Amino acid sequence: MKSHSSFPEKVLIIGSGIGGLSTAIILAKLGFDITVLEKNPKPGGLMRSYTRDGIECAVGVHYLGSLAQGQVLRKFFDYLGVTAAIPVTRMGQNGIIDRYIFDSSGNHPATFDLPPGMDAFEENLKQTFPAEQKKIAAIVDPIRKAAAQLHALDLLYSTGNDFSLLDQSRPLGEILDHLKCSPGLRSVLAVPASWIGVPLHDCPVYYHNMALASYVSSSWRLNRSGSDMADVLAARLKELGGEIITGAEVSQIHVRSRVVTGLQLTSGDRLTAAAVIGAVHPKIVLKMLPPQGAIRPSYRQRITGLEDTHGIFSVHARIDGDTHPEISHNIFKIETDRDGNVQDLRFYQIRKSEREGINLLSILTSGKNELWVPWENARSGRRGNDYLEAKERHALQLVREAEELFGSFKGLKILDAYTPLTIRDWVNSPGGSAYGVLRSSSQILATALLNRTSVKGLYLAGQNVMAPGIIGTIMGSFSTVKLILGADDFRKVIRL
């Protein structure tokens, strides 16, 4: 496709997470000369799982939404050419995708099951909260519309401007207040906001509804590991002629008269290109730019002032597979306040491992940044025994809490735990933020035009462009390609 002389011949992409690799594949399909630079030994970012005791421990891919025929992620994977190579199993065969288990404050039901399908979801809500039928109908109708927009790719092919979603930026918490929803109903609806790291009172209804719609439409688990998914995407890029250079940390992006000319690695090597895409956090891209003259001061100030989502703490432990069989749905243990707002939660999975007779228990929860302050100035691998002991104590506490739900774990061995500091150092996420820039109502304007860098040839990709999660990140990749090609050419050549 690449026929216009205004298009860059060579594109350098910083970061090989799902955003970097998907952007690279799209551009490589269109005939661009693509090189992806990854500071770590292997590509994949948070897709890449790691192995302990011969068991793959997931990091950023725990389940996927909307992979059924005609749904948004299936359209993305089909276009990228990776669908057949990423085997998955559909969740919800027992009628449950997620089970929410609430604390005992008495303001909400003990449990709520998130089922597959919008009709089943609405029915579950009405059965659980029979006195709030009209309120539920008013809440679910926009979620249905969000699902239709999501699968039709309305946002991607829209001819509107970047502010087209501002009319849907009202916080969901404010809408629920207006409807006078009970704390129980509020607590159930608050959980999807936590998936994208935004508190309910500041979560734009659009992002909440899109996140919820994506999983209710259909949910899936990888049959293999996140590393396999990363390898599939990397292999697809190489098949298309793209190159991935690992162990290549970028130190500077070169700019002359607000035009990108290339970049420099910490090794001292220089690479020239007419376009650079930063598939890392915008604050990291900012640090790579010259301190003066490259970008407008207002843009630098806006990026510097962005609030990010919280970090996460995760535990992986091996348990006896016969005593603790695989659970086909996810489990959330949720702490709420008296008004139904989520204060904290625990995410649990019990899945089969690669080893016969051994299953894997995974726990994710809030990062508790205050616990890791003593080591925040040290890098991974250099934090000492005190840090390791603190991680182990916190991990053991979370495992003991899990035993209150699942019973005493036979054959328990904690394999690993990671903190927000781990994520910070691994994928260059400021503060160890799990979901990047906070997509809140209060900073909707600050995040609306992140890709308008004012530097010709400099673009962003990754979860910070549009929304977090696999769908939001790949949607952002297509959005970046749209910016490079122009809306008219994009609509002509990108057929999803």
Structure summary:
The protein has 496 residues and is α/β, with parallel strands linked by helices. The chain has helices at residues 18-29, 72-80, 118-128, 133-152, 154-157, 172-179, 183-195, 205-217, 226-239, 282-288, 297-304, 384-406, 420-427, 444-448, 469-485, 487-493, and strands at residues 10-14, 33-38, 50-52, 55-57, 64-65, 88-90, 98-102, 111-114, 219-222, 243-246, 250-256, 259-265, 270-272, 275-278, 312-320, 330-336, 342-352, 358-366, 413-418, 458-460.
Structural account:
The chain is of the alpha/beta class. It has three domains: 10-49 and 61-87 and 224-307 and 435-493, FAD/NAD(P)-binding domain; 88-220, no CATH class; 312-366 and 368-418, no CATH class. It has helices at residues 18-29, 72-80, 118-128, 133-152, 154-157, 172-179, 183-195, 205-217, 226-239, 282-288, 297-304, 384-406, 420-427, 444-448, 469-485, 487-493, and strands at residues 10-14, 33-38, 50-52, 55-57, 64-65, 88-90, 98-102, 111-114, 219-222, 243-246, 250-256, 259-265, 270-272, 275-278, 312-320, 330-336, 342-352, 358-366, 413-418, 458-460.
Which properties best describe this structure?
21% strand, 496 residues, globular, single chain, alpha/beta, seven-stranded mixed beta sheet, FAD/NAD(P)-binding domain, 3 domains, five-stranded parallel beta sheet
Q: Please summarize the sheet with the most strands.
A: 7 strands, mixed
Strand adjacency order, main sheet = 8-7-16-17-18-15-19
Separation of the first and last Cα atoms: 16 Å
Total of DSSP H or I helical runs spanning 4+ residues: 16
Give me the Rg, rounded.
22 Å
For this structure, the quaternary state is single chain
Mean pLDDT figure: 93
What is the helical fraction, as a range of percent? 25-40%
Return the CATH class of the largest domain. Alpha Beta
